[in-house]
RNA sequence: UCCUCGGUAGCUCAAUCGGCAGAGCAAUCGGCUGUUAACCGAUGGGUUGUUGGUUCGAGUCCAACCCGAGGAGCCA
């Protein structure tokens, strides 16, 4: 019996008889020859069935194979300059595992809605595999970054008792006879963790019931959120900068083939080296005004504004000290300028927008109690959170990075929907 | 929630002024020893999103609704 091998390793088996187990990606026939493009999850290899080399049954099977039929193929690996990967398989035997029904996704063009309806099958296409492998690498790189720098992974809960923002953006869930909400962020729990472990992070799904219908929004998305005790805003920006550079460069190194499949211009990613430019919100407003944008101090940035700002730099830009008025209750006010918060966003280049948001947290008990009240939030619901300020409160800071926005940027995608295996959006929760 | 555009074969689309429902791909059958989204020939495939209206006649015009796409707003 020939050895079962994966296509990614095929170069090691030149001249040897091997077995592949996979699916028929495409087929071309020519009388006494069948060219079977077989994929096995690690790559695609052309398997050549020549009538003179195989039994009549095997040749007939090759003729009848439908797209995505599952097959076990045996044959000899041979070098061929006509192959995109330098090798092909001279088939000696074919075994059908299952004859696929008429496959809905043909090699021709399809619309977005159709492909999303068939997302469970669309995952088999080479492009989707490339970008989801980039996603896998991004998550691994993020976790390795923190794991090797003294951070403890602390998983945040998904059921949460209360809102840290308005309840309109929360998904309520019936919890026995009570209502709980799907988490919007693990941050508050990471603050508890930072007071216990010093440096912690979480990585998991978060949920926003926003009726956003843009290329940057999902209702279910993944965030990685570090939180560090005895860290201020500057330290937080240092961490975000070093983290982002490390993750981007690692993906660039380890996923070159995938980025090439996606036809990504990687010179733009190679430029992601620290230090990143840091500008205050006030400077950002001035920069926008000087390019003719009608925006006033206090306004939020629109998608176009973020694009204009990011295009002024060749690498990610950190915007810090936004007006405190529209910011979350836990943000610490800048003691130097009480109208702004000690917070920051990292905007990705090329118009990909905010990929990191974070900052220093309010660590003073009476001030935090005042902010809760100002935001019309009940102190009772946050009593555990206030405990963190009662028992050994320290300055601390952290941030959250959206995995999908990161992948979308790295892969040069137009829309976040392809950056997650099964996207959940307004009006779409299947498959 | 608002604005714009769209919904015709399994898929991507066409159908002139309101006058016979079309093509490519896919499928099925046949041909070809080197194909690279192979090619060549043939065949089958339709409640034109739903409901109602105008008309001799509606894919086409009108109304409501459903669904989708793009954008805006919203967005720790």
Tags for this entry?
RNA-binding, eight-stranded mixed beta sheet, BirA Bifunctional Protein, domain 2, 2 domains, five-stranded mixed beta barrel, 13 helices, 431 residues, OB fold (Dihydrolipoamide Acetyltransferase, E2P), single chain, alpha+beta
Question: Overview of this structure, please?
Answer:
There is one protein chain. The protein folds into 2 domains: 3-98, Nucleic acid-binding proteins (OB fold (Dihydrolipoamide Acetyltransferase, E2P)), CATH 2.40.50.140; 119-419, Bira Bifunctional Protein, Domain 2 (BirA Bifunctional Protein, domain 2, 2-Layer Sandwich), CATH 3.30.930.10. Strand 15 (343-348) and strand 16 (353-360) form a beta hairpin. With 431 residues, it is of the alpha+beta class. The protein contains 13 helices and 17 strands. An 8-stranded mixed sheet has the order 7-11-12-17-16-15-14-13, with helices on both faces. A 5-stranded mixed barrel has the order 2-3-4-6-5. The structure holds one RNA strand of 76 nucleotides.
Task: Indicate how many domains the architecture comprises.
Answer: 2
What would you report as the Rg, rounded to the nearest angstrom?
A: 26 Å
CATH topology annotation of the largest domain: BirA Bifunctional Protein, domain 2
Tell me the name of the CATH class of the largest domain.
Answer: Alpha Beta
CA-based shape: elongated
Backbone structural class: alpha+beta
Mean pLDDT: 91
How much of the sequence lies in strands comes to 25-35%
Reported for the largest beta sheet, the result is: 8 strands, mixed
Percent helix range? 25-40%
Straight-line distance between termini: 39 Å
Q: Extract low-pLDDT stretches.
A: none
Number of strands: 17
According to CATH, the homologous superfamily of the largest domain is Bira Bifunctional Protein, Domain 2
Series of secondary-structure elements, N-terminal to C-terminal: EEEEHEEHHHEEEEHEEHHHEHHEEEHHEH
CATH architecture label name of the largest domain:
2-Layer Sandwich
């Amino acid at each position: 019996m020939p050895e079962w091998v994966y296509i990614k390793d095929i170069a090691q088996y030149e001249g040897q008889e091997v077995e592949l187990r996979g699916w028929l990606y495409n087929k071309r026939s020519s009388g006494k020859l069948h060219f079977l493009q077989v994929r096995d999850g690690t790559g695609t290899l052309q398997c050549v069935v020549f009538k003179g080399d195989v039994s009549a049954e095997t040749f007939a099977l090759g003729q009848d194979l439908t797209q995505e039929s599952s097959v076990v193929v045996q044959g000899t690996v041979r070098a061929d300059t006509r192959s995109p990967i330098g090798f092909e398989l001279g088939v000696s035997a074919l075994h059908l595992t299952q004859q696929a029904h008429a496959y809905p996704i043909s090699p021709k063009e399809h619309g977005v809605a159709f492909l999303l309806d068939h997302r469970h099958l669309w995952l088999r296409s080479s492009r989707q595999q490339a970008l989801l492998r980039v996603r896998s690498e991004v998550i691994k790189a993020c976790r390795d970054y923190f794991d090797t720098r003294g951070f403890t992974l602390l998983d945040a809960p998904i059921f949460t008792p209360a809102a840290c923002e308005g309840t309109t953006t929360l998904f309520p869930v019936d919890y026995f006879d009570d209502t709980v909400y799907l988490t919007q962020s693990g941050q508050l729990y990471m603050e508890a963790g930072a007071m216990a472990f010093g440096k912690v992070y979480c990585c998991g799904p978060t949920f926003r019931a926003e009726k956003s219908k843009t290329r940057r929004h999902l209702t279910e998305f993944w965030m990685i959120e570090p939180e560090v005790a005895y860290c201020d805003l500057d330290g937080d920006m240092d961490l975000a900068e070093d983290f982002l550079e490390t993750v981007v460069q690692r993906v660039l190194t380890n996923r070159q083939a995938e980025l090439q499949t996606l036809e990504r211009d990687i010179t733009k990613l190679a430029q992601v080296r620290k230090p990143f430019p840091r500008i205050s919100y006030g400077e950002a407003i001035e920069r926008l005004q000087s390019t003719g944008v009608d925006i006033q101090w206090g306004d939020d940035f629109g998608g176009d504004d973020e694009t204009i700002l990011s295009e002024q730099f060749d690498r990610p830009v950190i915007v810090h000290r936004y007006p405190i008025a529209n910011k979350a209750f836990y943000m610490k006010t800048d003691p130097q300028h009480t109208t702004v918060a000690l917070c920051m966003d990292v905007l990705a280049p090329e118009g990909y927008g905010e990929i990191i948001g974070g900052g220093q947290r309010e660590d003073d008990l009476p001030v935090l109690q005042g902010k809760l009240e100002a935001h019309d939030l009940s102190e009772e619901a946050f009593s555990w959170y206030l405990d963190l300020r009662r028992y050994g409160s320290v300055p601390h800071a952290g941030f959250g990075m959206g995995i999908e926005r990161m992948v979308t940027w790295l892969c040069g995608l137009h829309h976040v929907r392809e950056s997650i295996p099964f996207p959940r959006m307004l009006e779409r929760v299947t498959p």
